[in-house]
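Re-run with default settings, no changes from the original entry. Doing this only to confirm the output is reproducible before filing.
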Amino acid sequence: MSKPYKTSKAVLGAMLLIALSALTLAASASAELTGEFIKFKQCPYSNLEVKKCVYSPTIGGEVVLGSKKVPIVNEAYLQGGFGRPDEETGFSKFFGAKNGITLSKAAQPVPGGLAGLVNCKTITNIILKASCELAFENGLTGVNSTLELARPASEIQISENHLAEEIGVALRLPVKVRLENPLLGSECYVGSEGAPIWWELTTGTTAPPAPNGPITGTAGELELFEEGSVLQLSKAVLVDNAWAAPGAEGCGGVFSFILDPIINTSAGLPAKAGKNTAILKNTINVAAGAGVRLNDADN
């Protein structure tokens, strides 16, 4: 394994856009990846349309959904591959992970559990308030929030240029949020395939509608591995606080007609654009698909 070395941010964009290799070797069916290439094992690099492989764990940050904030304390990751950028849009076609886990499901505990998610005393509707007290004041307090991909991986869009230059949308991601608790069940979602939450994440500065103000991400610090064939952006931060969120649906199964409005009233859902925030602290790893294929064939 090659030792990493740091390079200045001034050449970050140029380094990301360099053609890392012109190799076109196909992967051996029995081969295994080694060194820094191991993290790209789920990249569909045998497809020659895949020009780059990506593995990007989110190691911190937070999501503000309506009036509720959930810190990211459990690592999640995005993985797969992408092709050449479209000349008009600048976005590359995304290819999902070989094992189907393009966006991993990492449950994040909601601070305060049900008490943090639902405060019955703040509900002004008499019927909803009574239903809330009956349903939620029962000791089943733990609530997890899990981010999931809402659409096929092919609908993800990525721009390596925007990521490196800290301008525009770097990653367009269709997601939904599952709220899980013994009372809420496992089908309580904010967002769906038909009505996903669209994150347009940037490493630059956002321009959200009020009441949110601009926030700024960063492409992070660049290191090179494997003789320059693997790029790593540590301390990268992708942000978006201009997205809208629909109301929760399916909470409590057959009792969703009672629990959905309670969750929505307490959490401020649905929430218009400018009332939600995503801040993702990432380590972004990118490798040339040809380089991964060569490593595979060599081993």
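The chain has one domain: 5-298. Helices lie at 12-17, 113-117, 126-136, 160-165, 256-267, 289-298.
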